[in-house]
Amino acid sequence: MKNFSILVVIALAALLCGCISPQELPSGKINVVTTIAPQKELIKSVGKEKVNITVLVPPGAEPHTFEPAPSQMRAVANADLYIMNGAGLEFWMDKLLQVNKKMIVIDSSKGIDLVLESEGEADPHIWLSLRNAVVQLENIYQGLIRVDPDNRDFYLKNKEDYVQKLQSLDAELNESFASAHRKIFVVHHPAWTYFARDYNLDQVPLMENEKEPGPKYLGEVIELARKNNITAIFVEPEFNPKAAEVIAKEMNASIIDLDPLAENYLENMRYAGKKIAEGLIS
After folding, report:
1. Residue 63 is part of a domain; what is its CATH number?
2. How many CA atoms lie less than 13 Å away from 152 in the CB half-sphere?
3. 29 and which of 52, 60, 112, 149 could share a cystine (Cβ 3.0–4.6 Å)?
4. Which of residues 147, 172, 197 is at a domain's end?
5. C-alpha dist (Å) from residue 176 to 198, 260, 274
6. pLDDT tens digits, one per residue of 85-97
7. pTM value surpassing 0.85
């Protein structure tokens, strides 16, 4: 984060010299900035045509080590509303507020029962739970009506419509996992903790304390995979799949890509649920 202070200075200088003007952005819309791509669909589902959304973390980037670029600070400077993921993901949020102290900031993790990791910090992957997404949607709705109270009914209807979609898919997945004879699935990076909690599953990560596994730990995972007849290893595009390939070769298992940061949230959750369920049932 050593370059962050420089970015803040650049953005503040642009504001002071009048280089950034609200008129440059689409008129009549709420300018919303959010951290990761999955949040975009949640925000759009409530705000629809009344919101202009900027996502800070680009495709393929790692949210845990992300540094905003000067062009993104420009969007922050113009924002009416910032929708945080929360749960500790935006550790740089105080610095963003130096750029725009007037924007309303909403923590979408408010009201979610957070899972604590071994270091005592919250697991930030809250969006990978359809049940958590319902809570996030309520927080997004509350943020939008603070900025635009005149359209409360519009946002409320949109929120309720999307909640029905989330709950419908949740019911489908719950039924799928209820019939699974295995409950353990192996992932490279432990992003699916909340998903596993929803459906009484056990996520086994290849990463050991957020690092690539050593030989001892890798051997333990291989043994566990053998005992449970694991047929699939789930990996993310942001990480090196080498460890997954080792286990897949030992088990004659498939490697399946799951992207936690895909923008098409509902479709992606449906796909992920289907693939994980297939791995547990086959």
Report:
1. 3.40.50.1980
2. 5
3. 52
4. 172
5. 12, 20, 8
6. 999 999 888 888 8
7. yes
